[in-house]
Each structure stands twice: as C-alpha cells, then as structure tokens.
Amino acid sequence: MAENCIFCKIIKGEIGGNFIRRKKDYVAFKDINPKAPVHVLIVPVKHFASLENADDKDKLLLGDLMIAVRDIARKLKISESGYKIVINNGEDSGQLVFHMHIHLLGGWQKVSHWKV
C-alpha cells in the first residue's frame, strides 16, 4: 500500500467508500464522480500505479479482476443490456489516481446512434 494513495486509504478504511464488494485481493466501490448511471471502480488491494506497472506475477490477479467486472455487472443488472470497462494507463490517458483500477460503466438506456 502506498501512504498517500487515496485508493489505498479507502481500502484500509481511512476514507469512506460506497462499497459494492470487498474481497481479499480487490474492492469495488461507486465512483464519487460518475460518468454513467452505473459507475463502479474495481481496485486491487495490491498497489501498483497502472497496468504498465503490473508484472508477470499479477496475471492471476488481473484475471480475477476481469471476472469481478463480469460478476459485479450481473449483480447490478447491467450485464444483459451491456456495459463498458475502461483502464486508464498513465497521465496522458486521463488517469487521475495512480493506483491501477478498472472503471465499470453502464446503465444507459438504449440509443440507436450510441456505439461503444
């Protein structure tokens, strides 16, 4: 865990979070600045700044995070209508918190011109 990382502080309970799920290796909580009707962050407990900083030992963790996305989408009832996942990787991608995390976005009503 990194001392000044806001996500590490949320994971440790030093800062409140609206949790959807807590597991040994990851947590999921609602984004405080949502960009969609459903906007959840899935965050590994292990601190690494971005996907670029993951190492080969993180393969299982990264796979578990993808399964978590699927399961949380089902729990939140957005799996059938569709959802988007985003992993920003570095400053130029728009990453604001440098603790790797996955954005799960969904809950939009169907719009014929909307494409993912």
Automatic annotation (TrEMBL):
Residues 6-114 form the HIT domain. GO terms for molecular function: catalytic activity. InterPro entries: Histidine_triad_CS (IPR019808), Histidine_triad_HIT (IPR001310), HIT-like (IPR011146), HIT-like_sf (IPR036265). PROSITE patterns: HIT_1 (PS00892), HIT_2 (PS51084). Coiled coil: none annotated. The active site is at residue 101. This is Histidine triad nucleotide-binding protein.
